[in-house]
Amino acid sequence: MKIFYESREVAEIAPGKDGAATLTYNPDWQGTQGAFPVSTRMPLEVARHGAGEVLPWVANLLPESQQLEMVARATGASQTDPLALLASIGRDTAGAMSFSERGFTRMTTREVPDETALERIIQELPQKPFLVGEDGVSMSLAGVQSKIGVHVGEEGMISIPVEGAPSTWILKPDSGSLPGGVYNESLCLRLAHLVGLAAPEVRVGRAGARRYLLVKRYDRRRQGESWRRLHQEDMCQALGRLPSAKYERNETGQRGPTVRDIVAVMRSLDPLRGVLSIFDYVIFNAIACNTDAHAKNYSVMVTASGASLAPIYDVMCAKLWPDITSKQAMSVATKWEGDYFKGRHWQREAALCGLNSTAALRRVEMLCKTTMKHLPQAVEEVIAMDPDAEHWVREVEKYIAERATFLVNGLAEQDPEATTWARAHFDAVG
User: Fold this and answer.
1) What is the dihedral of CA 121, 125, 128, 134, to 10 degrees?
2) How many Å apart are CA 67 and CA 11, to the nearest integer?
3) 370: Cβ–Cβ under 8 A, 6 or more apart, which residues?
4) What does the pLDDT average to over 64-74?
5) Residues of the chain with CATH 1.10.1070
6) Which pLDDT belongs to residue 206?
């Protein structure tokens, strides 16, 4: 299977015995000015990479759970054969790569004529992820929840990219299992932006009885009449972990990525800006009560000159739904419940990550207070998008305010021996 960056051939993946696969870079791509690797784990300087790097990278470009099952059923490919799946739906993926067929920069779309048509698409998504099987449509987005890549025109009209065109927004429909989720996520991402974190633009819309969230793709950029793809990879890809290991606690039998692990990735890629920024993301996810901030929900942008932290995304306040776990996806100094994070936990986690413990406390305090300052504005902005959001965002506002207040008050409980604790913990778990 060939891999393309727009019209250029980048590499080829050749399947091998027992599910093994090798990726070989095209020599022309290696010699192209501005060329970048498909992954930070697969540098251009090395022509061929084995299955240990290739398969986790590929698997993390596909949907998960029931979404993956439905795609497999529609394409006739096995759920355990990510190469075959991407060959069918991988022309538009997270990042810049297209699989099996070239991607293009021209915006070719199929119009969604009205709300009724959009509502019908939304209704069909659970049984027909990414409109799989429809003529000219080939896209894949990671994750468990239903979503679809779309293009939003200058007048707000939504259309479906076809024939290798890149999607420019991600449409996330409402969900019966997560009522108010559209408003919840829009509030959290608007708040992240107002707090000063890099966060994508969001819009709330409705199609008949359905509500949806539009999230602008940060890995797409308009250039004149063209739409260029920007490359990225998530932290599971950067760490060489399969999607099944995205949580620190998982069912693989091995510990999944930790805060220390993702900080270490940024230290290797962007030590001046990325390390502190990703720790800010961890803090903000705790403030927002986002218990699903696993490794796939942190990403890096990959360019010819190196890598940098991608904007924060997929942030929702889990306290809105009582049946959702209250445990964070990644622990903070072995503590899982955000309602119990104290100053000592932030100090110890900072020490584990090789960061200054005192500075970490200041960042927690600053982000909590900045959150409290901008929270009312974020609430009003979402209500302005859709007045029906008010009930839901007022609930989220309450939970975030409570968490931010608690975290600030808890900073007084400190550990002057945080470095010693971290050293002992590190020696114990490796």
Assistant:
1) 30
2) 27
3) 195, 196
4) 91
5) 232-429
6) 96
- Cα atoms in the Cβ-side hemisphere of radius 13 Å centred on 333: 27
CATH of 232-429, one of 1.10.10, 1.10.510, 3.10.20, 1.10.1070: 1.10.1070
Residue 250 one-letter amino acid? N
pLDDT band at 254 (very low <50, low <70, confident <90, very high): confident
**What six digits make up the tokens of 63?**
């949907």
Asked whether residue 52 carries a pLDDT value surpassing 60, the answer given is: yes
List the structure tokens of 102: 């070239």
* Residue 176 CB-density burial (10 A; 0-12 exposed, 13-18 middle, 19+ buried): exposed
Q: How far is residue 327's CA from residue 293's CA, in Å, rounded to a whole number?
A: 10
SS3 assignment, position 114:
coil
When pLDDT is averaged across residues 235-256 and rounded to a whole number, the result is: 94
Instruction: Kindly report the length of the chain.
Output: 430
Of the candidates 142, 168, 325, the one whose C-alpha atom is nearest the C-alpha of residue 243 is 142
User: What confidence category does residue 155 fall into, taking pLDDT thresholds of 50, 70 and 90?
Assistant: confident
| Number of other residues whose CB lies within 10 A of the CB of residue 272 | 9
What pLDDT, on the 0 to 100 scale, is given for residue 428? 61
Whether the predicted model's global pTM rises above the 0.90 cut? yes
The rounded radius of gyration (Å) of the Cα atoms in the chain is 21
